[in-house]
């Protein structure tokens, strides 16, 4: 796992007179193993910020470091991050085991190591008895756990969550939130978790970054953010 530093990070779309600045000088120091929620209304820049950390969006200004290494010019694959989205496409013809193992096979990891990692992730996610099934034979919640398993087996330094709960019904949302908390507790993951839902933010965050119109308005614990006199 690793710390994350954002130093005066900016983002503009377009060039010259037409340029539209959507992120204005964000500064944040995220500790190793810390769970950070980025919260704010639609269009405030949450996804853009996350996508810049992931390497899916170019950084216009400033610097992003992961584990003390500046990642501005690194490809997503070189950043040692895993991203969990709201719609995870599993491979329908592959078993649960192979869905989780696929990214490691591509990297030519030894089969014994792959099996160790998949078994460990499956135990945490309670998928051990489902490894031979295909996604079609799973419930929605189980499918989602497979998608999280795929991220876990890579043992990334940082987990990036982009509104992973927003398409779920209330029951599954609560259940998945507990699973994410368990991952944080048991694996000590460093996480940036994006949501527009304040309740979700308060429940999950150790500290939260409150965004509004591209500006980081607050950065603190839920108590500091919500009970400010
Ligand atoms: P959020 O995730 O908080 O809903 P986004 O990060 O998606 O917000 O968007 C922040 C702002 O950047 C919005 O005003 C959005 O319209 C704008 N934006 C996002 N992507 C692009 C793009 N590719 N080109 C131009 N503007 C964009
Ligand atoms: P492919 O579809 O790529 O041919 P296989 O189904 O042959 O993959 O499995 C690839 C590797 O994953 C093999 O080493 C196999 O033993 C292992 N594997 C597949 N399913 C399981 C499982 N349910 N439990 C443990 N190992 C598995």
TrEMBL record:
Q: What terms describe the molecular function in GO for this protein?
A: ATP binding
Question: Could you tell me the superkingdom of the organism this chain comes from?
Answer: Bacteria
- The reply to whether rRNA processing figures as a keyword in the UniProt entry is no
Q: Which UniProt keywords apply?
A: ATP-binding, Cell inner membrane, Cell membrane, Membrane, Nucleotide-binding, Sugar transport, Translocase, Transport
Keyword Nucleotide-binding annotated: yes
Q: Which residues form the ABC transporter domain?
A: 4-229
**Protein name (Swiss-Prot/TrEMBL):** Sn-glycerol-3-phosphate ABC transporter ATP-binding protein UgpC
Q: Which organism is it from?
A: Caenimonas terrae
Query: Gene behind this chain?
Result: ugpC
Fragment boundaries within the full protein? 1 to 229 of 335
